[in-house]
Specification:
The protein is α/β, with parallel strands linked by helices. The protein is built from twelve helices and 23 strands. Bound molecules: 1,4-dihydronicotinamide adenine dinucleotide. 1,4-dihydronicotinamide adenine dinucleotide binds next to helix 5, strand 11 and strand 19.
Length: 454
């Protein structure tokens, strides 16, 4: 029986371990904190739980527009956090249960690679195959005291027991925008500072422009194209000084400037694994490292930091390591979802990335305002954009912003995966009224054949 050790129990490591067990390996999973990793314990799941509270709050605040009179709602922060913690615990127990059922031995502790073994405290676990899935942790800024109680990372803010009157966020990436959306809804005055000229690098620029305007209408201030030169604290205030000397005050400051890999001091270099200057593990297209017995998957190999991609990589690394259906990791179709209000979801190429690849493309855009289901839900803001290759009509990508965007994006993922054209997608009958129907409309509109739009 192949002895497979997995180091790190997040979305990459959990799936790698469970998948290796399904493939008949003898599996040990080593995790120093909680199973489920960042996503389940400090990322995707807790943030979505809090955002669900914000959604309910927003709906109640706007209840009159739905024909319901209610007194003004009030957030019970301890109850909101307890609900979030319950959801995290339920999910974590699910991972623990899956490991038990599949006879994955879970060891709690810090693993250090030593030859063909991993040392965890006094115990040494031998491996034929090791899959390293150690993930990342929030980065701080060198000139900011990240230990100060009013200066928070995305880990710390999940347990914040107050709704700040004012919140400053450094970083207008995915984490910065999700927390801006959350706290703006809960009543904070939020200011986001982003060094680049625009928010959400990597997402279609036109959609981001419209997103920013919608967030500004919700009261969020964005200061883009400026870095930060200093941060000071006094009493219950933080002051973030911009490059031009302007100070931005906030009761709390969230630093959301990216995440760094947890790859130092775990014996990787000694084992012959290449680690680049920023700490990312270097893997080939099969997810193999320079040591033939060691593979790596998930956020610690750099690139897109997404839980679902990490899980897919975990399973692929295991199969490649065990010599089962060996193939390169395919990242052509990876949906990317941002859980702001409105939601943004993208898959495949945007107009910008397609053009950068030298492709001749056609962009079609439709508005949620013309979709009956979105209007009925009280969510008229949003756009769907579809990118097809000129001539062949093959669908290359889409960016959708609006209600349920993170759900409807998957049909475009399937369409790209199956090589469908806009015409073929437009011919698939979609139920009415649904938000998904807007995808059919957009595909038809790309041919100027959408009955109500073209
Ligand atoms: P990020 O890399 O997405 O964004 C960080 C932003 O901070 C960048 O736009 C950068 O230009 C800006 N920045 C850096 N230093 C700065 C400074 N000194 N002053 C002002 N701006 C500065 O990283 P983020 O948001 O921390 O997220 C980390 C990772 O987690 C990302 O890869 C993200 O995709 C992933 N993630 C994904 C989620 C999702 O898919 N829903 C949710 C949360 C995180």
């Amino acid at each position: 029986m192949t002895r497979c050790v997995v180091l790190g129990g997040g979305p990459a490591g959990d799936v790698a371990a469970l998948h290796a067990a399904q493939r008949g390996a003898d599996v040990v999973l080593i995790e120093e904190r909680e199973l489920g990793g960042t996503c389940l314990n400090r990322g995707c799941i807790p943030t979505k739980s809090l955002l669900a509270t914000a959604d309910v709050y927003r709906k109640i605040e706007h209840a009159a527009t739905y024909g319901i009179e209610v007194a003004s709602p009030k957030i019970n922060v301890p109850a909101m956090l307890a609900r979030k913690n319950d959801i995290v615990m339920t999910m974590r127990r699910g991972v623990e249960g899956a490991c038990e059922r599949k006879k994955v031995r879970v060891i709690e502790g810090h693993g250090i690679i030593d030859g063909a073994e991993v040392a965890v405290g006094d115990e040494r676990i031998g491996f034929d195959t090791l899959v390293v899935c150690v993930g990342t942790a929030p980065k701080g800024l060198p000139f900011v005291d990240m230990t100060h109680e009013r200066i928070l990372t995305s880990d710390d803010i999940l347990d914040l027991e107050v709704i700040p009157e004012t919140l400053t966020i450094i970083g207008g990436g995915v984490i910065g925008c999700e927390f801006a959306s959350l706290y703006a809804t809960l009543g904070s005055k939020v200011t986001v500072i982003e060094a680049l000229p625009r928010l959400l690098a990597g997402i279609d620029g036109r959609v981001v422009g419209q997103f920013q305007a919608l967030m500004e209408a919700q009261g969020v201030t964005f200061l883009t194209g400026t870095g930060v030169s200093a941060v000071s604290t006094k009493g219950n205030r933080t002051t973030t000084v911009l490059e031009d000397g302007t100070g931005v005050d906030g009761e709390f400051l969230l630093v959301a400037v990216g995440r760094a890999p947890l790859t130092r001091g775990i014996g990787l270099e000694e084992a012959g694994v290449e680690v680049d200057e920023r700490g990312w593990i270097v893997v080939d297209s099969l997810l193999a490292t320079a040591n033939p017995a060691i593979y790596a998957a998930g956020d610690c190999i750099g690139g897109l930091q997404l839980a679902h991609l990490a899980s897919a990589e975990g399973a692929r690394a295991v199969d490649n390591a065990l010599g089962i259906e060996v193939r390169a990791m395919d990242r052509t179709v990876v949906p990317s979802c941002i859980y702001t209000h409105p939601e943004i979801a993208a898959v495949g190429l945007s107009e910008e990335t397609a053009k950068a690849q030298g492709l001749d493309v056609q962009l079609t855009q439709t508005r949620f305002r013309g979709n009956g289901k979105a209007l009925a839900e009280g969510e008229p803001d949003g756009v769907a954009t579809l990118v097809v290759e000129k001539g062949s009509g093959i669908i290359l990508g889409a960016t959708v912003m609006g209600v349920h965007a993170v759900e409807v994006i998957h049909e475009i993922a399937v369409a790209i995966s199956d090589g469908l054209t806009g015409e073929e997608l437009g011919e698939i009958i979609h139920a009415h009224p649904t938000v998904s129907e807007l995808i059919m409309d957009t595909a038809q509109h790309s041919l100027k054949l959408a009955p109500y739009l073209s």
